[in-house]
């Protein structure tokens, strides 16, 4: 089983002529509400890839529609807690030039406590994977507890925050990093070269599998002496929202069925390349049949 201890956000998106100024009251041209959050996106991607995924999360009892979307995609939602506190949410303004400004409120995503974590661990077995992003609280506790239960941990420290430096990253089996996250963890400048980044991360975390995604420049993988490099699929990107989430979901679903690392990277890259050709988050995450067709091309 793939368990995803992941955020669930409601995205409130307002189209505006310009980003609201201090003291101004502005009418929006349109409004949409949708499911977001890196956790929910990655669960959707894993399920669409055919993975066996259970989401561990918290969302307001007033937002049950979220469970329907996840269920329909094949995500097991039985361990999502319906809360009295507000759901995590993002208030997103998008202007006529596609610039955006976002207020993020973690809400229920930051309401985990030790009692929740112990309860979650009752169902796991040592073969299970635990996937984490950086949008829920109590990450150090859940990593420690999961490692004690023999779970294999995969962590995507996004969005990057100062808290990440204090986490027991050596307990992770896999780290998924983009260039900015890799530079911060390596303690290097964001303009550092890829080889330099990988070397510094390897020095710090020699046992961990490192997956470095580089946007249109593809992906690098390193585990001990094993180093792999895969170019991105040559496509024209229209919106890179959820590209990283799609990549991680497809990688983990392939990994769950014990595919080779080369296959994991190839399927994840094919899926992410399909994602960047569509707008939006959840709607742009492709289905396995589309990825299979793109992989053959
Ligand atoms: P994040 O969105 O987390 O910053 P990246 O930008 O590195 O992550 O993108 C994740 C993956 O999405 C890349 O490794 C690549 O496979 C795919 N991808 C992103 N941008 C493009 C692009 N312009 N063309 C093709 N694939 C892309």
UniProtKB/TrEMBL annotation:
Give the EC number: 2.7.1.15
Annotated positions binding substrate? 9-11, 37-41, 135, 245
Has keyword Transferase?
A: yes
Write out the GO MF terms.
ribokinase activity
Start and end residues of each Carbohydrate kinase PfkB domain = 5-287
List of residues binding K(+): 239, 241, 275, 278, 280, 284
How many cofactor units bind, and how?
A: Requires a divalent cation, most likely magnesium in vivo, as an electrophilic catalyst to aid phosphoryl group transfer. It is the chelate of the metal and the nucleotide that is the actual substrate.
Q: Which InterPro entries match?
A: PfkB_dom, Ribo/fructo_kinase, Ribokinase, Ribokinase-like
UniProt keyword Metal-binding present: yes
What are the binding positions for ATP in this chain? 178, 213-218, 244-245
Pathway(s) where this gene product acts: Carbohydrate metabolism; D-ribose degradation; D-ribose 5-phosphate from beta-D-ribopyranose: step 2/2
Q: Where in the cell is it found?
A: Cytoplasm
Spell out the reaction equation it catalyses.
Answer: D-ribose + ATP = D-ribose 5-phosphate + ADP + H(+)
**Which HAMAP family does the protein's record reference?**
Ribokinase
Q: Function, please? A: Catalyzes the phosphorylation of ribose at O-5 in a reaction requiring ATP and magnesium. The resulting D-ribose-5-phosphate can then be used either for sythesis of nucleotides, histidine, and tryptophan, or as a component of the pentose phosphate pathway.
Instruction: Kindly state the subunit structure of this protein.
Output: Homodimer.
Protein family per UniProt: Belongs to the carbohydrate kinase PfkB family. Ribokinase subfamily.
What protein name does the entry list?
Ribokinase
């Amino acid at each position: 089983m793939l368990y995803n201890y992941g955020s669930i956000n409601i995205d409130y998106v307002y189209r505006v002529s310009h980003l609201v100024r201090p003291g101004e009251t502005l009418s929006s041209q349109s409004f949409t509400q949708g499911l977001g959050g890196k956790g929910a996106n990655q669960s959707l991607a894993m399920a669409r890839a055919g993975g066996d995924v259970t989401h561990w999360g918290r969302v307001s009892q007033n937002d049950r529609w979220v469970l329907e979307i996840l269920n329909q995609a094949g995500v097991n939602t039985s361990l999502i807690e319906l809360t009295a506190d507000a759901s995590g949410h993002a208030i997103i303004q998008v202007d006529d030039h596609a610039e955006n400004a976002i207020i993020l409120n973690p809400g229920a995503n930051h309401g985990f406590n030790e009692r929740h974590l112990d309860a979650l661990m009752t169902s796991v077995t040592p073969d299970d994977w635990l996937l984490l992003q950086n949008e829920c609280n109590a990450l150090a506790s859940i990593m420690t507890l999961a490692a004690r239960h023999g779970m294999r941990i995969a962590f995507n420290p996004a969005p990057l925050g100062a808290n990440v430096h204090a986490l027991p990253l050596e307990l992770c089996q896999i780290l998924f990093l983009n260039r900015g996250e890799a530079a911060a963890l390596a303690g290097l400048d964001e303009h550092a070269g890829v080889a330099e980044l990988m070397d510094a991360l390897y020095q710090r975390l020699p046992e961990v599998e490192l997956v470095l995604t580089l946007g249109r420049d593809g992906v690098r993988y390193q585990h001990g002496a094993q180093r792999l490099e895969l170019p991105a699929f040559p496509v024209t990107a229209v919106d890179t929202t959820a590209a990283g989430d799609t990549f991680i979901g497809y990688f983990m679903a392939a990994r769950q069925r014990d595919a080779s690392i080369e296959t994991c990277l190839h399927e994840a890259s094919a899926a992410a390349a399909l994602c960047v050709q569509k707008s939006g988050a959840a709607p742009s995450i492709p289905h396995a049949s589309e990825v299979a067709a793109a992989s053959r091309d």
